[in-house]
Write a structure and sequence with these properties.
Strand order of the largest sheet: 1-2-3
Radius of gyration: 16 Å
Mean pLDDT: 86
Low-confidence stretches: none
Shape: elongated
Largest sheet: 3 strands, antiparallel
Structural class: alpha+beta
Number of helices: 2
Order of helices and strands: EEEHH
């Protein structure tokens, strides 16, 4: 697997007029603007903030299955990681 190039987690959510997702070092990772509703803004910010944890969890699951006798291809899971790394559109 290729190495991920994104800002390392953990990422945190901070709300004001705009939902900011920041890295542990304070770097701004994303700004979620209130396009539809406050609930959408909060949900989007929390999903973005969870991205590094979700990425690492999925990598661990794939490694466990790769190291096991199970015959699972995990095509969609591998495609999701490749998309997160910018290897696919």
């Amino acid at each position: 697997m290729s190495e991920a190039k994104f800002t390392p987690g953990p990422w945190r959510v901070r709300f004001g007029n705009i939902g900011h997702v920041t890295a542990e070092n304070g770097a701004l990772v994303a700004k979620c603007q209130r396009l539809t509703s406050l609930c959408n803004l909060q949900a989007n910010a929390h999903l973005i903030a969870a991205a590094p944890d979700l990425y690492e969890a999925l990598e661990r699951v794939i490694k466990i299955i790769d190291d096991s006798p199970w015959c699972l291809k995990l095509t969609e899971e591998r495609a999701a990681l490749a998309k997160a790394r910018g290897e696919t559109p």
